[in-house]
Amino acid sequence: MRHLIFSIVTICVGFAAQAFEIEGEYRFGSDDARQEIRIISTADVEILIPLMRLFLDANPKVAIEYTSVSSGDLMTAIVDEGAQFDLALSSAMDLQIKLANDGFSAEHSSDATKLVPDWGNWRNHVFAFSQEEASIVVSPEAFEGLDIPRDRQALINVLRSHPERFEGRVATYDLALSGTGYLFATQDARTTETYWRLMEVMGSLDARLFGSSNAMIEAVSRGEMAVAYNVLGSYARARKDLDGMIEVIDPADVTSMMLRTAILLKGAEETELAQGFIDHLLLSAWGAEDVPEYPFYKWHLDTSEAAAATKPIRLGPGLLVFLDAQKRKRFLREWSAAIRQE
Predict the structure, then answer these.
(1) Distance CA 124, CA 136 (A)
(2) Does a structural domain hold residue 32?
(3) CATH of residue 19
(4) Of 5, 70, 75, 150, which is the most exposed, with the fewest CB atoms less than 10 Å away?
């Protein structure tokens, strides 16, 4: 019988000597599994459970050990601690490219990898299996009587015009803590003319900083925050229980698309199974057949005008630019001056 064991701890027993922090450790599969795939991932486990169960249905003698961590702790586990995993799944595209560029990944090529667009496959080492938008999440109640902004300039205008309403009620990522937030911010700075003005306006309103999209979504739904910027739209839209309490907006000027990626780690103990799991993710994401268990929206199939404003962040060495220690320090200094008004 298939079962799920939840073991949500800060440092799991098996990693007591490790320096990286584990958010949760889970096991899926049969009690008599003959093989196990070990996955380290930044994705909330609930999002991928349906896909993992689908894979296990086709591989009844296999189990999956799933370790949930932050993007920074994923790097610490692999690079600094040498922790043994077969696959790394992460929303921090830049850090995944760094892992591959620094020799921690193994090449994989298959019919499934050929389905991935060029901008979502880096040298057959890093593979995109989702497109997830950087969205604005608002509280409709907080905007009562006002036009809800549909792009960055409109957001700037409404925040400037009604400071008394939005003081202390605007939110975004703490870039010093969140790899995804830092990725979105650096891409915004490169592709939009309004990013720094928006940060200055949010800073003037005593913006609140968060470490995750889910925390921002919850704060908006409770009415504590009126607007949250650069939230993962996929997470917000998955919260059907919050219908009416939040509204998700993909900026009409340009919507950056984060690519959640998978890499096969060098030295994987279950290489063939891990390759099969990557193919399972890629066929679900890019294959012609609809997979009900796939949890993300397939933007590449959408030809609407709104979808035309979406811009996938390309996988490639260009993502490493802002990981340079001096460039990162400079960017964070400028961002802190704007958002914290220091």
Answers:
(1) 33
(2) yes
(3) 3.40.190.10
(4) 5
